[in-house]
Each structure stands twice: as C-alpha cells, then as structure tokens.
Amino acid sequence: MTTADGTERPGNGGAAETAATGGAPGPAPRTGAAAAGRTRRGFLRGAAVAGTAGAAGAVGLVAGQAAHAGADTPAPRAERPVPFHGVHQNGILAAPCRSTAFVSFDVTADARADLADLFRTLTERARFLTGGGAPPPAGITAPPTDSGTLGPEVPAGGLLVTVGVGASLFDDRYGLGPRAPRRLTAMAPFPDDDLDPAWCDGDISVQFCADSQDTVLHALRDIARHTRGGLQVRWRLDGFSSPPRPSGTPRNHMGFKDGTANPDRADRRTMNRLVWAGPPSGEPAWADGGSYQAVRLIRMLVEFWDRVSLTEQERMFGRSRDTGAPLDGNHEHDTPRFAQDPKGDVIPLDSHIRLANPRTADTDRNRILRRSYNYDRGTDSNGNLDMGLLFCSYQQDLQRQFKTVQQRLAGEPLTDYISPFGGGYFYALPGVRNAHDWWGRGLLT
C-alpha cells in the first residue's frame, strides 16, 4: 500500500470519532481448560476474606472531574474514594484518569459454583481497593497480605475498577448460554483490520483506572494474586490520558483531540438512550444497568503520519489540530454544519468526523461514549515506534452503534496510518448495589 507521501508499506486498519486508534507483539495464547484443575473454591473463598477490610470507606464523591459534565477533561482526583456501590459501574461515566490498565482474562474455574466464588472475590477486592484502608495483619510466618507498594496503608487513590464479561464465558462450561446478553459476540475483523487472535476477546475484562500508575499496578497485582486459582491473563495493555494542551479534550498520538463529540454524560435521558442496557433494550433481567463495552487496540503508524502535511491531516480528520474545532468552526465544541457543505468543500465527505457521525436525525442513535487512552510500548522488532490508542467505548447496542459507525469508516483515508490488531466485545456488568451484592450475582444465582 502507498501512503499519502508516496512511501510504500504494508496495509493496515480502522477507528471511531473523534480520533483514530494501537498495536504490539502478542501475549501467551489461551490455555483454556488445561489450567482449570488448579482452581479450588476454598482458595477463592480464603482470598476473598482479606477484601472485607476498609469496605466502609467506599463512599464520597468523584473529585476533580470537569466542571461541564459532558466534557472529558481529565483532572487529578483527590485521594478520597470514588463511590463503589450503585446501579451502574462508576468507571463507565467517570472522566478518564491519567493511567489505566486494561486486562482480558480467561476463566480457569472448574464449575459454576467456583465461578460465583471468583466474582465474589473480584467484588470484595475491588471494594477494598477503591475504598482504601489497612490490609489485615498476617501471621508471623505468613506472606504479607499486601504487596506494600503503596505503603503500609492502601490509599483509595481515586481508583476505578470496571468489570465485563465476554461471549466465551457463555459457552457450555458453566451452563450460562441461555442467559447471554442478546448482542454479545466475539470480535470479528472489519475490512481494514489485522487482528491477532492472541490479542482478542477473553472471558472477563477488568479495567483499572487511577491518576497514579502505582495505584493502577498495585490494584492489578492484588487482583491477580487473589484470583490466581480462577483467572489467567489472556492479554493486557496499559495506557495513559494526556493532560489538556492547552485546554479542552486530551490529544492522541496523532496530535488531535480525542472524544470531542461525546454525548453529555450528565444527561440521564441521553445515557439511558445511548449507554445503559437492560430489559427495555431486549436484554435479560439480570443485565439491567449494564452496557456493551467495545475495545479496540489500534496501533498508529506515527512515523508515516509525521510526514503528512498539516492541511492533509486536518482534512482527514475534519478538524483543526490546534483547536479541535471542525474545519467550518472556531471552537472545539462547535457543531459541524454538514448540511451547508453538501459537496464537502470545507469538511471532506470522507473525513473521519463526517463518516463517524453524519449528524442526521437517523444517525444520532448511533452515537457512542468514548473512553479511550493512549499507549506506548517502545519499539517493535524492526525498530519502529510502537504506540497508538487503547480505544474503549460504551453503548446500549453493539450493532446499532459501534458496529454501524465502524462500517461507515471502512476505507477512510486514516486507514493508511492505523492498524487495529486486537480488542474484544464485553458486557460491562450492572453495578454492585450494596455491601451484600457482588458482580454477576444476578447472572449466576
């Protein structure tokens, strides 16, 4: 394939408004049932006991979010806890944190009862980690109950933990097939993708977000320790959200603002229409309050991108790089006037923002809530920079929203500069209602 500057290179893949999206070498392949024999219900129950300390601290307000509820400008959160209990998982609507780790796991639990214990353990550990507190003491000869990387007492650190389930969890292992979310499938490639199976899908997704990387890594390490008998990492990608420069929405590695056109997350009616799923949208009763999570790992070929003129870059996106404004506007959040530019003289007809969101009465229902992060994995085996976007979005209906938008983007000019290589579809579980509830309770009981 030939790029816009005439350089020859291999072909690559697609994205969703308002930016493109990342890639890297693959992790160990799925081991499936081969590791299942290591799982023991007693082990999981024992691991869960340590998670009860500090649960009462999981109250308070999300600090440091943007003043405009619809804006996604990340700002440092205070050390106080983010609320853990609620109808929905709080990590879905919260503004992006500075640091994240997205991890896909394969379940190695033996039976459905073991799977229920696994979800109880996940819940109890997340409840403790997001609330903070002192780890329980260990015996004189026992290993410490905490890694100690955050000090003798675990600070809440504004940590958010978001859990989803993949289509593979509903195979014949646990008898959950009849209870599967109606629109949940494995991720199939779009025309411009180059998916690596080792970087795709998984039984359970867990995303850790905080404003300090050590808080994220501490939480990941804690969850991995307490679920070792029931979960095995399938793939993992760490990311970060850049501070606004100079203001507004953060930028991606291509230099453009990412997430400008997000719907207003403070508008409950809009969130009910676009994000939250449940019986009204055709989902089973247990799924009420959840949301479909689409994850795309998209490498950006930045060394090729950096050879393209700014004018051409802006026409590919349909926005000004400096301000984030549409090419027919002056400010980042100005609404593009596509109807007044029917031939694409100002904003090209094949620009990213025009394909992703044509802004007609029929396409408003296709909008998604983006929750994306940048990533950087150093260099690949050829010495090329390996960086891109950990794209994540939430929507009520994968087909009506994410997949429809992605299909409109097929063949867009940006596909010469991005290469989607992994990701997956998951159903973000309903929230944990109270201290007696746990993730997946409605599904498994």
From TrEMBL:
One of its GO terms (biological process) is iron import into cell. Residues 1-37, 129-153, 236-265, 320-344 are annotated as: Disordered. Residues 329-344 have a biased composition (Basic and acidic residues). Its main location: other. Residues 249-432 form the Dyp-type peroxidase C-terminal domain. Its EC number is 1.11.1.-. PROSITE patterns: DYP_PEROXIDASE (PS51404), TAT (PS51318). It catalyses: heme b + 2 H(+) = protoporphyrin IX + Fe(2+). One of its GO terms (molecular function) is metal ion binding. Binds 1 heme b (iron(II)-protoporphyrin IX) group non-covalently per subunit. It is found in: Cell envelope. Its cofactor is heme b. It is an enzyme of class 1 (oxidoreductase). GO terms for cellular component: cell envelope; cytosol. Keywords: Heme, Iron, Lyase, Metal-binding, Oxidoreductase, Peroxidase, Signal. This is Deferrochelatase. It comes from Streptomyces sulfonofaciens. The lineage of its organism: Bacteria, Bacillati, Actinomycetota, Actinomycetes, Kitasatosporales.
